[in-house]
Amino acid sequence: MIKVIVFDFDGVIVDSPKLKQDAWFDFFPETYTEGHAAVQKVFASLQEQESRYTIFRAILKELQTPEHRIEPLVVRYADAYSKKVESKIIERGCVAGALEAIKDLSGQYSLYINSGTPEDALIRILERLDIRKYFKEVYGRPITQDGGILAAKQGNFEKILERERVSAHEMVLIGDSDTDVKAAEEVGCAFVGVRNEMNAWDEHKPFPVVHNVLDIKRYI
Questions:
Q1: CA distances (Å), 212 to each of 70, 100, 103, 184, 185, in order?
Q2: Which residues contact 101 (CB under 8 A, 6 or more apart)?
Q3: Using CA atoms, how far apart are residues 157 and 6, in angstroms rounded to an integer?
Q4: What is the mean pLDDT of residues 141-170?
Q5: Distance (Å, rounded) from C-alpha 25 to C-alpha 175?
Q6: Are 164 and 182 in contact (CB under 8 A)?
Q7: Which residues have C-beta within 8 Å of that of residue 47, sequence separation ≥ 6?
Q8: 216 with 6: CB under 8 angstroms?
Q9: Cα–Cα–Cα angle for 105, 151, 194, rounded to 5 degrees
């Protein structure tokens, strides 16, 4: 029996994956031909979702930026990127059905968020959207971590399981990416996918796929 529901954030609660992807090109627009091409090349080479620091660092190296300038630029760009994305997410609000589903499920299950979004930014956004109160705890990418999102999510799952004192079979992850699928597989919990314009998932996937977060209850 499911006792714990863990939500991813981007693409599940808020419609942000494409917004975040497009934001990279605000820093390196098409008019800046070399920069635009560098962004495309870096994203094409990514093996998994990475932090904004890692991505900006890779782009700047691709542009052959002098070594001594890279880290100061990474910090500056990453901060500007976060502020831009946060503002746009808050302006858009939750995806259709998400708020209703969260309110309903919070009275029956222990709800958590496990996201690759930096934890400080994640908490700020949730508080601005007035939905932080529905979750027992919120876990994002640790502020000090500069690595792959999968590792961060696995660490967050360990915290949730320890706090709830449940087995992985009593937990379900609601996500929208291949990283989410892999994280659920590795921890051993159930998975329900949310379709969006970035993943275009359909019923042929080896896990349930819903078009609206309100529909996840039928699979829990």
A1: 42, 11, 15, 20, 23
A2: 213, 214, 216, 217
A3: 9
A4: 87
A5: 25
A6: no
A7: none
A8: no
A9: 35
Predicted confidence (pLDDT) per residue in 70-99, tens digit? 999 999 999 999 999 999 999 999 999 999
Q: Could you tell me if 206 and 40 are in contact, meaning their C-beta atoms sit under 8 angstroms apart? A: no
Q: Are 86 and 125 in contact (CB under 8 A)?
A: yes
Q: HEC string of 169-207?
A: HHEEEEECCHHHHHHHHHHCCEEEEECCCCCCCCCCCCC
Beta pairing partners, 120: none
Model confidence pLDDT, tens digit, residues 34-72:
988 999 999 888 766 788 888 999 999 999 999 999 999
H or E, element range at 33? helix 33-45
pLDDT digits (tens, 9 = 90+) for 113-155: 999 898 999 999 999 999 999 999 999 987 654 557 888 899 9
Using 50, 70 and 90 to split pLDDT, how confident is the model at 173? very high
Q: Please check whether residue 28 is in contact with residue 36, taking contact to mean a CB–CB distance below 8 angstroms.
A: yes
Residue 71's nearest CA partner among 49, 53, 46, 52 is 53
State the pTM of this model. Answer: 0.87
